[in-house]
């Protein structure tokens, strides 16, 4: 990333606003920006979804083909998640091979999909040890206005939930919808000095001391977590965030499921 | 009203469109070829005296000598700072151009990376090397409040005729406001006042070419500040 | 070009595989100002192509050794999303996209007034979200709108359009099958006001006469695409236009 100097004035102003229980964009501390989900945006992909979280804009595409399983998991399909922070999305993103930010993003999203078992990978087995479905989830970041984590996680799940397995292309019968097992949702909180906010916007993210993302499923179980940035959280803060994640995750899950249903 | 021809003067034009064939002279945002004048950018056509101009609606700030701008320190060197002035050209601020006596290597004790300064463009050469200075009265380090950015081309609208718009903003929001020529605006006051000023300035930015804008903004501020008082 | 096949690309009525006439474009939709962070942006749907273009700058040129003390440099990056084609494309530049990026940068050199911004860079990003033949032309068309939306000084917009030859017939704007199984393709970028050709490629097999007929078709189609570009920009700034109209009416009615 190229240099991104945040003015002290902005840092101070954001904090001052937060101490009055307000945010610079007028939201409540624990309020998401507007979430807009559109599935089926890319017809040539097996599944796709475009998610706008405020002005953050992420396009996820799912491609499926047939390949060999890994030797240690002969009865499982192969799922790979990849994220591209393309320079179109922000003046601070640069062209080139994935940097640590895009690798962290793709790994955290992947962890939630895998541990949250959105898809049961054994459903993707065609012939044990020989032939399985190989699935790529590509996250294309189009506009970066804060909190890529939640937007990307939503886009990935929505894309998977709209995926049609291209069986007919390989003479394996009719195409069919990819079976979805669980609906994990990631909720990300940022800590600015001693105040915690949900779904940090760009400027909030730029001044945040610490970030915590929690993936929860529809049963309220925790499926993946990631703490980021230089600061830390107290144990009590973590407890509070986990509790809030379940509650906020439920709201997002409803939006997600409605969007996928509406897109069919 | 009719002598001012506001309608004719406020036509939206696009790059490559003909803006004059009657023998006017090419002004800003235009170019001439074979006696015809064309728009060189997306903007608002304006005829003033013998010139046809196209005023940009967007675009980067290009420094001019004498402009007062709001900058952010992005680097410190042993005898200068590098200042981002919201243009393609970061500008060095030399220790000789500040009102303090700074020892070699001691620059960060006076201005740190992330500090905001009000500076004047002291020189621009052909290759757009820019120098800035902090030596005039009023030029200083800014602290407190908030800073927002608008396209530099909209600055005259935020100030208004004879300062009418800026005075309106100050009056209704109770804020101190300074508008840099580079489109950065510093606003200081209470949180609600700043938030209201920002909303009003965003309205000005979006509707900068509207006639009767001052009245519209006044109505907005009046309504909103009543809500605030309740 | 030139994959052999038995697919009939022109039917007995002289219509093409998707029902178009030889000199007919696919449907084109253009929208300006679609992204928040970029200085200018545009979205183009051209048949099944879906293309996003964004412009940053003029901004400080990085790395510094690229800076030219007499003018801005134009750096275009044409990129295909991994899911934009039927078989997933590995992310990152390949030789094809590097070449396309280079010639698109050069195409814009002649219209952008680079001399106004020495030492800076004007960065143009073209992202192919879904590809269906003709992405470079759709990309150029989108990028020109994004440049104008960014307020970059330029002498004119630039239109990208292609024509070629299928089943021994000269046709405009080749579709996917025509691109795969046709006989020639001639992508162009045209400056509509002057008619200057600022990008020109050709591959396949054509007679001189066929080539010029194809180029004629593109020149003619460019005029129409140019109107779509301008229309998109006008719509983007429609609020202003609307306000203006109201002002005109109120002045005419004498209630100002």
Index terms:
heterotrimer, B: 230 residues, alpha+beta, OB fold (Dihydrolipoamide Acetyltransferase, E2P), Ribosomal Protein S8, Chain: A, domain 1, 32% strand, disordered N terminus, C: 256 residues, Ribosomal Protein S5, domain 2, 5-stranded antiparallel β-sheet, 27% strand
Describe it for me?
The complex is a heterotrimer of chains A (264), B (230) and C (256). Chain A has one domain (8-262): 2-Layer Sandwich (Ribosomal Protein S5, domain 2), CATH 3.30.230.70. In chain A, helix 3 runs parallel beside helix 5 (235-262). In chain A, 29% of the residues lie in helices and 29% in strands. With 264 residues, chain A is α+β, with helices and mostly antiparallel strands. The radius of gyration of chain A is 19 Å and the shape is elongated. In chain A, strands 1, 2, 3, 4, 5 and 6 form a 6-stranded mixed β-sheet that branches. Chain A has helices spanning 8-19, 100-115, 148-161, 202-207, 235-262; strands at residues 35-39, 47-53, 56-67, 78-84, 125-127, 131-143, 164-165, 176-177, 185-192, 195-198, 210-216, 222-228. By secondary structure, chain B is α+β, with helices and mostly antiparallel strands. Chain B has 3 domains: 2-56, RNA polymerase II/Efflux pump adaptor protein, barrel-sandwich hybrid domain (OB fold (Dihydrolipoamide Acetyltransferase, E2P)), CATH 2.40.50.100; 68-142, OB fold (Dihydrolipoamide Acetyltransferase, E2P), CATH 2.40.50.140; 146-229, Ribosomal Protein S8, Chain: A, domain 1. Helix content of chain B is 21%, strand content 32%. In chain B, a hairpin with a 2-residue loop joins strand 4 and strand 5. The radius of gyration of chain B is 20 Å and the shape is flat. Chain B starts with 11 loop residues before the first strand and ends with a helix. Chain C is an alpha+beta fold and 256 residues long. Chain C has a single domain, classed as 2-Layer Sandwich (Ribosomal Protein S5, domain 2), CATH 3.30.230. Chain C has 5 helices and 10 strands. In chain C, strands 1-2-3-5-4 form a 5-stranded mixed β-sheet. Classes of the chains: A alpha+beta (264), B alpha+beta (230), C alpha+beta (256). The B-C interface holds B 1, 6-7, 10-12, 14-16, 29, 31, 38, 40-44, 56-60, 62, 88-90, 126-128, 151, 153, 206-207, 209-212 and C 39-40, 57-60, 69-70, 111, 113, 116-121, 148-157, 191-193, 230, 233-234, 237, 239-241, 243-244, 247-248, 251, 256.
């Amino acid at each position: 990333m190229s240099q991104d100097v945040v003015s002290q004035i902005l840092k101070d102003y954001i904090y001052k606003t937060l101490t009055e229980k307000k945010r610079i964009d007028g939201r409540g501390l624990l309020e998401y920006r507007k979430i807009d989900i559109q599935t089926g945006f890319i017809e040539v992909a097996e599944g796709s979804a475009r998610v706008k979280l405020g002005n953050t804009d992420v396009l996820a595409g799912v491609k499926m083909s047939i390949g060999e399983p890994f030797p240690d998991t002969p009865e499982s399909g192969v799922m790979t998640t990849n994220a591209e922070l393309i320079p179109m999305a922000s003046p601070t993103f640069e062209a080139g091979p994935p940097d640590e930010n895009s690798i962290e993003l793709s790994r955290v999203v992947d962890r939630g999909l895998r541990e949250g078992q959105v898809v049961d990978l054994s459903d993707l087995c065609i012939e044990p040890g020989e032939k399985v479905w190989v699935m790529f989830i590509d996250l294309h970041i189009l506009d970066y206005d804060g909190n890529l984590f939640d937007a990307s996680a939503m886009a990935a799940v929505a894309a998977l939930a709209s995926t049609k397995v291209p069986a007919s292309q390989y003479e394996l019968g009719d195409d069919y919808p990819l079976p979805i097992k669980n609906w994990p949702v990631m909720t990300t909180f940022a800590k600015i000095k001693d105040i915690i906010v949900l779904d940090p916007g760009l400027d909030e993210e730029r001044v945040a001391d610490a970030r915590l993302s929690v993936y929860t499923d529809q049963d309220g179980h925790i499926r993946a977590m990631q703490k980021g940035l230089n600061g830390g959280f107290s144990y009590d803060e973590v407890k509070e965030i986990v509790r809030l994640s379940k509650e906020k995750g439920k709201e997002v899950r409803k939006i997600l499921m409605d969007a996928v249903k509406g897109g069919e | 009203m009719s002598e001012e021809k506001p309608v004719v003067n406020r036509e939206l034009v696009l790059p490559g469109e003909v803006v004059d064939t009657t023998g006017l002279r090419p002004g800003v945002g235009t170019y001439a070829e074979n006696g015809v004048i064309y728009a060189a950018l997306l903007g608002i056509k304006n005829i003033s005296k013998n010139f046809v101009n196209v005023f940009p609606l967007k675009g980067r700030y290009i420094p001019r000598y004498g402009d007062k701008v709001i900058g952010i320190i992005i680097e410190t060197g042993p005898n200068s700072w590098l200042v981002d002035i919201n243009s393609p050209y970061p500008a060095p601020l030399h220790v000789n151009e500040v009102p303090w006596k700074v020892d070699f290597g001691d620059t960060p004790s006076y201005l740190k990376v992330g500090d905001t300064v009000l500076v004047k463009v002291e020189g621009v050469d052909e290759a757009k090397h820019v120098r800035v200075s902090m030596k005039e009265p009023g030029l200083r380090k800014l602290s407190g409040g908030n800073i927002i950015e608008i396209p530099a081309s909209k600055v005259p609208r935020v100030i208004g005729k004879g300062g009418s718009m800026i005075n309106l903003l100050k009056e209704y929001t109770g804020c101190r406001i300074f508008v840099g020529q580079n489109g950065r605006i510093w606003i200081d006051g209470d949180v609600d006042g700043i938030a209201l000023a920002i909303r009003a300035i965003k309205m000005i930015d979006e509707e900068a070419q509207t006639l009767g804008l001052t009245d519209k903004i006044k109505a907005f501020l009046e309504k909103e500040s009543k809500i605030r008082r309740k | 070009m030139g994959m052999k096949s038995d697919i009939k690309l022109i039917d007995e009525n002289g219509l093409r595989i998707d029902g178009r006439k030889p000199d007919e474009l696919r449907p084109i939709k253009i929208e300006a100002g679609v992204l928040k962070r970029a200085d200018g942006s545009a979205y183009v749907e051209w048949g099944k192509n879906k293309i996003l273009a964004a412009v940053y700058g003029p901004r400080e040129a990085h790395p510094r050794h690229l800076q030219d003390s007499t003018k801005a440099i134009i750096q275009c990056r044409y990129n295909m999303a991994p899911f934009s084609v039927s078989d997933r494309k590995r992310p990152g530049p390949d030789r094809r996209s590097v070449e396309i990026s280079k010639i698109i940068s050069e195409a814009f050199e002649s219209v952008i007034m680079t001399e106004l911004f020495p030492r800076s860079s004007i960065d143009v990003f073209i992202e192919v979200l879904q590809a269906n033949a003709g992405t470079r032309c759709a990309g150029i068309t989108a990028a020109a709108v994004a440049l104008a939306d960014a307020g970059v000084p330029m002498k004119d917009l630039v239109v990208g359009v292609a024509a070629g030859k299928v089943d021994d017939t000269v046709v405009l704007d080749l579709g996917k099958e025509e691109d795969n199984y046709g006989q020639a393709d001639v992508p162009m970028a045209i400056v509509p006001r002057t008619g200057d050709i600022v990008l020109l490629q050709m591959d396949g097999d054509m007679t001189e006469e066929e080539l010029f007929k194809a180029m004629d078709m593109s020149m003619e189609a460019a005029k129409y695409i140019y109107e779509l570009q301008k229309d998109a920009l006008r719509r983007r700034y429609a609020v202003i236009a609307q306000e203006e109209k109201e002002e005109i009416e109120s002045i005419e009615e004498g209630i100002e």
